[in-house]
Amino acid sequence: MESVGLLLDGFATALSPINLLWAAIGVLLGTAIGVLPGIGPAMAVALLLPVTFALEPTAAFIMFAGIYFGGMFGGSTTSILLNTPGESAAVVAAIEGNPMARKGRGSQALATAAIGHFIGAVVGITLLVLLAPTIADLAVNIGAPDFFAIMMLAFIAVTSVLGSSRIRGFASLLIGLTIGIIGLDEMTGQQRLTFGILHLSDGIDVVIVAVGLFAIGESLWVAAHLRRSSGKPIPVGQPWLGADDLRRTWKPWLRGPVIGFPFGAIPAGGAEIPTFLSYVTEKRLSKRRKEFGTGAIEGVAGPESAASASAAGTMVSLLTLGLPTTAVAAVMLAAFQQYGLQPGPLLFQREPDLVWALIASMFIGSVLLLVLNLPLAPVWAKLLQIPRPYLYAGILFFASVGAYAVGGQPLDLIVLFVIGAIGFAMRRYGLPVLPAIIAVILGPSAEQQMRRALQISDGNVSGLVNTPFAITVYVVIALVLLWPVLFRLIRRPSTQDDAERERVDV
């Protein structure tokens, strides 16, 4: 009950007119910047960090929270409409959201995403208030074998449900892992696949890879097939959801936070893993499994809700442990230090007004996000009515600007278009793009966690499975891999029984 009283005090601070204004500005800026391919919420917060020197800490962090949630939704907008995610957490939204948009249901997909973000944020922030100490304890106790097992589950899950075959999925995963190991080995300092280019020693930023595979690859693919397309404008669609849509989405909206919030609190890849796992879960549970890949609304509702809840979970580790689990959290940690504050267990005692005003502003920002973007869904969907040559020329321009802004090096543009050519080839030969993305994001971390676990066990492979949590995850992986075989074995006897019954009837 003490937390509830402190939260009410936080609402009193956050609902003051000036702080409410900063929250609205943060949501608008975050959404606008998140729409641009490659310029996600982390870069938005980093760019605005010097601007906030004149603001008091409470106002600054209220605006940062608005940018965080707004940026995540903005990334989903281009992911759904143009198949070009504005940031890595929006990657999964493209799987079902973009086919929906191509069918003239872009407004419904955006409305589903907006409501999913709202529900995920509200549930996640509520859990942040109630369960922050417990989640922080769990995060501290998870070791290297557990992290590696979680990442292996993400690899296996995404390659098992995407693409026309598992072989193509694993081929895409291998491409991503190869890109992910470019740079210096963190443990030995040995160069890997740098070809003597000093700029590649730091590796290739995941933003460049995501924008190259999605935005550049998609633009080249559309250009290659432009003459074959009809050129007819895609209808915008209605901004509201029908009764059937609501029946299909309310359960994924509620399941998403259950997956997203715990992952946000542990350093295992931010919102990427829970969004992928949420998509896999919805596909497994759906009665319309054949519709997945062609515009299943559940594949938008669940992952978007999980992504928003994961953002709330990120704040658990940041505020209670001083541990940033995402790029945005790392920038916000720098912002805390800029004001002479150190996140951790003592932050709630030393700066309770700031912390609870920040948490209250997350609730307010979520409401503002829904109020502002739900009516704007048809407006965003009209992006699809822009003539394709102009539309994709603009995508190439903003993608290049976003990639160049990452490091400020012309070589980044060359790398961007090389990876874009790889993305085009993957589309040409039917390889799903998403396993490559998750491999680039999680591959280096998975390697480090595996080597760390092996070092602790003196090179004994049993060191990877020496905890109950890791064993449980590997059992889940085995079920995912063996499920098609088990399903056939279970289904075959029933099919034979039906055949025998038909013979008897005859």
TrEMBL record:
The chain crosses the membrane at residues 20-49, 109-131, 138-161, 167-184, 204-224, 259-280, 315-336, 356-377, 389-407, 413-442, 463-486. Residues 20-438 form the DUF112 domain. InterPro entries: DUF112_TM. Pfam families: TctA. Keywords: Membrane, Transmembrane, Transmembrane helix. The keyword Electron transport does not apply. It comes from the Bacteria. The keyword Transport does not apply. PANTHER family: TRICARBOXYLIC TRANSPORT PROTEIN. This is Tripartite tricarboxylate transporter permease.
